[in-house]
Amino acid sequence: MENAQTVSDIIKTAGGPAAIQAELEKLDHVLTRDAIYKWQKTGIPDRYWLAILKLTNFGTDQLYRANCIARGLAPIPEAAE
Length: 81
Hints:
Layout: H1 7-13, H2 17-26, H3 33-42, H4 49-55, H5 60-71
Helix pairs in contact: 2-3
């Protein structure tokens, strides 16, 4: 499994905003690339995790931790396990 530290790492590994946008369109989500760039500060919304998981080898625990970092929160250890 890959080691993600930040939402930026996840976006990069997923192929960048264009690749994420294309995958989300397949799932009938309309989202701009600018909105995807904003995830670096706001975290990846849960409703888009399926697309990110499909594009990467990350697990939900890594997405959760990266979101906590983006939002300036400390992860709850038992929630990420």
